């Protein structure tokens, strides 16, 4: 729970894709007609913080089982969105609290809970 991850709300991803698709990169020396973009919030949070926010949205406490860090895992990850900002003047910015609350509301509605 002490590791840090970058969470991105799905609507931010959709907005980024809507901006990217109609604007393919120009052909370059390698004749490539593609470019890869990181689409992320660029604001890592501790996994325990994520769980606490989710617990608050759900109104119940999670059952947690802490394990040692797994082989190949990393302590902290986050998206470098500098190319996305430079090319499209866009950066995902939905706060985690808002994104999780919206997701929980959608989930409960969809599954009629």
Spans where pLDDT lies below 50 across 5 or more residues: none
Structural class, from secondary structure content? mainly alpha
Strand order of the largest sheet: 1-2
CATH class: Alpha Beta
What does this molecule look like?
Helix content is 40%, strand content 4%. It has four helices and two strands. Strands 1-2 form a two-stranded antiparallel sheet. It has one domain: UDP-galactose 4-epimerase, domain 1 (Alpha-Beta Complex). The mean pLDDT is 93. It is mainly alpha-helical and 113 residues long.
Question: Notable features of this structure?
Answer:
4 helices, two-stranded antiparallel sheet, UDP-galactose 4-epimerase, domain 1, about 110 residues, mainly alpha
Describe the structure concisely.
This protein has 113 residues and is mainly alpha-helical. 40% of the residues lie in helices and 4% in strands.
